[in-house]
Amino acid sequence: xxxxxxxxxxxxxxxxxxxxxxxxxxxxxxxxxxxxxxxxxxxxxxxxxxxxxxxxxxxxxxxxxxxxxxxxxxxxxxxxxxxxxxxxxxxxxxxxxxxxxxxxxxxxxxxxxxxxxxxxxxxxxxxxxxxxxxxxxxxxxxxxxxxxxxxxxxxxxxxxxxxxxxxxxxxxxxxxxxxxxxxxxxxxxxxxxxxxxxxxxxxxxxxxxxxxxxxxxxxxxxxxxxxxxxxx
Length: 232
What we know:
4-stranded antiparallel β-sheet, Rossmann fold, elongated, 5-stranded parallel β-sheet, Arc Repressor Mutant, subunit A, alpha/beta
C-alpha cells in the first residue's frame, strides 16, 4: 500500500489469534494495534483514530456486541465482527448493530486481508465520490459547508461523525425530495448497509439536531425513505 499505512485495531481475548491476525495484516501493509478486551479497545479508539476494527464477539466482561454498541455511540469507523458462530441470526444481529462485515472463524489469511482492505476503502468513502460540486448548502436554519465538512445551526457548529455528516449532506443535496433507503445506502455506505442501519443513523442524526430544535427537518416518509425539509 502506497503512502501512509492504514491502521487496524484487532480486538480478541485470545492472544494467539491476535498475534496471527497482526502478522497477516502487517505483511499486507497495515499498521496494527491490538486490544485484549472491549474496554481496552475503547481506550485505543478514544486515544486516536483507526481506519478499521476487527472485533471478536465472544470476550469476557464487555463482549463484542456491547463493545460495538459503545463504538457506534462515538464513531463510525468500519467494524468487522469475528466469531465462531456461523448462523444467519448472528450475521443479522451484527449488521443491525452497526457492523460493516462479519467473518466466521477459522478464516483464511487472504480472505481476512481482502475483507480488511474493503473495510478501509469503505471507511474512506462516504460522499466524496459523488459528482456533486463542492459547495455550501444554506437555508434559514442549517448550513452545510461541503468543502470544510462542517455543519452549523444558527452559527453553532454541530458535532457529527463522518457517517452522520455524509447522511445529512446526501439529504441536503436534494433538499425537499424523498430519498429511498436504497439511494442513501448507495451514496453514504457505498452500497454496504441495511435499511435498519440507515434508520439507526437517521435517529442519531435527529438526536443531535434536536439539541438545536431542528430534528423536525429530517422526516421519515413511511414505506419510502427520508427527506430533509428546509424551514419555510
